[in-house]
Design brief:
Blueprint: H1 2-22, H2 35-50, H3 54-79, H4 89-112, E1 132-134, E2 139-141, E3 146-148, E4 153-155, E5 160-162, E6 167-169, H5 174-194, H6 196-202, H7 209-216, H8 218-223, H9 229-261, H10 265-270, H11 279-287, H12 291-294
Length: 327
């Protein structure tokens, strides 16, 4: 809080200083920065650096960097003058634009949506069966709500913490995660198909040690000078597409299974599906009333039927006691 207050004060001072200069009449003159203005800028940069969290921001930067590398490489393949892609260049550009737009939109919506109990008014009158007390948040939390020590807050219907985007997956932002997985898987499959020609060109010389090292360890081949920089870039991005497609396929299959069962990762591990109300009801509970539209574009409003606090449970069959004749 103290660091945030310092950063706010310094930012306010810088804005007032710029407004004072811009509102002055006559021609605008540029003065040599004084020692106080330089010290103010250094202090402002220091405050921003102290607020930088490596465990939170570095994975996000890596995710955006890898996405940009794959997107630029696919765009280069589409725009090049040779190849079978050029016969349908307009179609490929349209497909690439749709995939990137939905991918980035789901990513932004996922990171902007707050799935925690912050801003949620939890009254004592609503306490019921299954409620627990979180000593970290110092509040009673509803069922299926768990504390995340990375986010340092309790998350409604918490599924897991997404390391690549630095936020928990919960009741409010789960539709955007599923959309991100679907469009990410589709985009990686599309990029892998476009990179098939590069794979064939690398393996054209046969299954030799040179081709295997280039596909498995492109960095080593670049450092030792065995390949050119362009061959390294194509091999590295192609490997990224294949590995990313495999990981994305595994996560997508897992989340689809959890969606149809209406369960979180913890409930799936325990094998207790108390909230399984049928796959149609589960899809509506997780993705909203307009789930078929929100998967087309994330900014389409799809209101969730629940509030993330109260959940309907299914009635489990009661086991009858064994009779003496059955023994």
């Amino acid at each position: 809080m103290f660091r945030q207050r310092i950063g706010w004060c310094l930012t306010r001072k810088c804005l007032n200083y710029e407004q004072m200069i811009s509102s002055s009449t006559g021609p605008r003159t540029y003065e040599v920065p004084t020692q106080s203005s330089v010290a103010m800028k250094v202090s402002l940069l220091t405050c921003y650096w102290r607020r930088f969290d490596a465990t939170l921001h570095l994975p996000i930067c890596m995710t955006l960097g890898m996405t940009a590398c794959v997107a630029l490489e696919v765009l280069f393949i589409i725009l090049q003058d040779q190849g079978p892609v050029q016969e349908f260049r307009v179609v490929h550009l349209f497909l690439f634009s749709v995939l990137m737009l939905n991918l980035l939109a789901n990513m932004v919506a996922f990171m902007k949506t707050n799935p925690s109990i912050r801003g949620v008014f939890l009254t004592d009158s609503s306490l019921g069966k299954g409620w627990e007390y979180c000593y970290s948040c110092q509040a009673h939390v509803p069922p299926r709500c768990q504390h995340c020590y990375n986010c340092n807050v309790c998350v409604l219907r918490r599924d897991h913490h997404c390391v690549l985007l630095g936020q928990c997956v919960g009741h409010a932002n789960y539709p955007y995660l599923l959309g991100l997985l679907i469009y990410g898987w589709t985009g990686l499959l599309y990029a892998t198909i476009l990179n098939a020609e590069n794979f064939m060109s690398i393996l054209h010389e046969g299954l030799s040690a040179h081709s295997l090292f280039l596909l498995l360890m492109p960095w080593m081949m670049l450092v030792t000078g065995q390949v050119s920089a362009s061959a390294f870039v194509f091999a590295f991005v192609a490997d990224t597409c294949v590995v990313g497609l495999l990981f994305c396929s595994a996560f997508l299959i897992l989340n689809m299974a959890l969606l149809f069962k209406g369960a979180t990762c913890k409930e799936w591990y325990s094998g207790k599906y108390l909230y399984d109300m049928g796959w149609k009801r589960n899809v509506t509970e997780f993705l909203g009333m307009r789930w078929f539209l929100v998967l087309l574009f994330p900014w389409i409003h799809s209101p969730l039927p629940g509030d993330g606090i109260h959940f309907e449970t299914r009635t489990l069959p009661v086991q009858q006691p064994l009779k003496s004749s059955d023994l």
